[in-house]
Amino acid sequence: MTATNLLQTGQIGPSAAEQGRPFRVYTQRDLDRITAIHHLPSDQRFAMKVVSTVLPFRVNEYVIEQLIDWANVPHDPIFQLTFPQAGMLTPEHYAQVADLLRHDAGKAELDAVVARIRETLNPHPAGQRELNIPRLPNGEVVTGIQHKYRETVLFFPSQGQTCHAYCSFCFRWAQFIGDKALRIATNEAQDLHAYLRQHRCVTDLLVTGGDPMVMKARHLEAYLEPLLGRDFDHVQTIRIGTKALTFWPYRFTSDPDSDALLALLERLVAAGKHVALMAHFNHWRELDTEVCERAVERIRATGAEIRTQGPLLAHINDDPDAWAALWRRQVQLGIIPYYMFVERDTGAHHYFKVPLVRAWEIYREGIQQVSGLARTARGPSMSAGPGKVEITGVAELAGEKVFVLRFLQARNPDWVHRPFFAQFDPEATWLDDLRPAFGEPEFFFESEYRERWTGVLH
Ligand SMILES: *Cc1c(COP(=O)(O)O)cnc(C)c1O
Ligand code: SF4
Questions:
Q1: Which of 25, 131, 360, 458 gives 127 a disulfide partner, CB atoms 3.0 to 4.6 angstroms apart?
Q2: All structural domains of the chain with their residue ranges
C-alpha cells in the first residue's frame, strides 16, 4: 500500500495530539526565554551567550523537550549537539567576547571583534566556494550548484539555507550568520534544469542546504517535479540531505504540508526515480522518539530509501558502542547506514576533533559489533579538496608505521580505491596533517590535483 493510500485510510496519519504541532524556535536573543536552562549555573548561561555571539545558535522546542536529557546536562550528547559550550571558542577568543559583553560594549565594537574571530575559523573549508562552481555554456556562473564528482550534482535551493535547529559543529555555519558573500544559494530552478539537461553524465542530484526539508512542499515540487520529464532520464537518483528526522520529525507527520511532501516523494518513486533521504544522525538517541519512528515509517511507505551519514565528534559520539547502537537502530528501522565522516577543520573544530587514529579505532570497534547489514557504513572519511579519503587502517610496511588510505570518491574517478600511504601520526586530525610514507615527496594524486583543480601551484 502506498503512502497516500495509507493517509487516506488513516493508518499512518498523525495522532490527534500532534496534529499541527507549532514550530517554536529559539536563537541567541531568546536564550533567557528558554526555561529549561534557567536552573543552570549563571556562568554556564553566560558562556552560552558568549559563544553564540560568534557561532550560530538555533534550537526548537522538540529538541529541548523530547531529545535532551536535562538530568545529564552538560554531558548529554544532544545538549552538546545543539547548545553552545564555553570550550567551543579558544580561550583568547572567549575572553575577548566575554569582556565586551560584560562591559556592555557598543554593537559596532562587538561586531568588529566577532567578524575578526569568525575570519580565523576557516568559514569555507575544502575550497568549497572557489573550486566547484560550474558554468553554463554561455560562460555564466551557475550559483547554487556544485559539481565536484562526475556523477553527482549538489544543489542548494535558496529557500533551504537554514535548518530546524543548528548543530554546534556545523561546517556550513558561515551560511547561517548572514554573511552574504559566503552564501551558496540560488532560487533559479531554471539554471538547475538547464545544467542537468546539458550534463548527461550526471546520474545523481543531491539537494542540500542548510536543510531542504525546511522548504515548503510546493517549492521542492518546483525543483523536482520537472525532473520527471524525458529530458532528465539520466538523472536516476534524487537525494535530499536532511536533519529533519532529528530536529523536526513533525515535518513528515503533522506539518500543514506533510502529506503533500510525502506525496511528492511518492510520485518521484512511482515515476522510476531512486529517491533517498540522506539523513544526518550523530547519536542513536535522535532515533528514539515515537514521532521520529512514525516519520521514518511514513517516508519508507512512499518507497523512498533513508540512508544516513554523520561526523564523528568529541563530546557527542566518540565511542564505538554509541556508533554500534546507532547503526543497529537504523537497520532495525529499515534505514541504511552510509557514511561516517571525520569532522572538518572549521568553526569549533578544536572542541570536536578526534585524532584520525582514534577515528579508525572507533569505526572498527563499532563495526565489529554489528551484523553485515549495518556494515554498509563506510568511513571514517574525510571530505577534502581532492575527494573523500577513507582511513582504511594502520599498518606496518617495510619497517614503517603507516596510515593506509584510499579515496571513496574523487575528482578523478581513476583515483578511487587505490590504496596509498601516509606516515603514521598519532596527532593528525585531517588530511592536511599527513605526509606521504616511504620518503615519497607527495601523494600520488597531488600534482594532478594542483594542475587540474586548484589553479595554483604551491
Ligand atoms: C559526498 C559528496 C557527493 C556524493 O558522493 P557519493 O560518494 O556519491 O555519496 C557529491 N558531491 C560532493 C561535493 C560530496 O562531498
Ligand atoms: S543540519 Fe546540517 S546544515 Fe544544518 S546545522 Fe546541522 S550540520 Fe549544519
A1: 131
A2: 3-119
Rounded Cα distance, 142 and 139, in Å: 9
**pLDDT > 50? residue 1:** no
d(CA 212, CA 217): 10
Quick: pLDDT tens for 84-136.
999 999 999 999 999 999 999 999 999 999 999 999 988 877 655 555 667 76
* Ligand index nearest the alpha carbon of residue 125: 1
Query: What values do phi and psi take at 36, rounded to 5?
Result: -60, -25
Neighbours of 219 (CB within 10 A): 18
Q: What is the Cβ-side half-sphere exposure of residue 436, based on CA atoms within 13 angstroms?
A: 11
- Closest ligand to residue 206's CA: 1
The CA angle 133-428-86, to the nearest 5 degrees, is: 85
Q: Which of the 8 DSSP states describes residue 139?
A: S
3-state secondary structure at position 282: coil
User: How far does the centroid of ligand 1 lie from the alpha carbon of residue 372, in Å?
Assistant: 23
Closest CA to 209 of 141, 154, 167, 258: 154
Q: How far is the CA of 16 from the centre of ligand 1 (A)?
A: 40
Give the position of cell 521542492: 220
Atom of ligand 1 nearest to the CA of 339: 9
Question: 246: Cβ below 6 Å to ligand 1?
Answer: no
Q: Which helix (H) or strand (E) holds 174?
A: helix 173-176
Q: How much distance in Å is there from the Cα of 368 to the middle of ligand 2?
A: 29
pTM of the model: 0.92
In the reported structure, the alpha carbon of residue 204 is separated from the centroid of ligand 1 by a whole-number distance in angstroms of 9
Strands (E), 313-456: 336-342, 378-383, 387-397, 400-410, 420-423
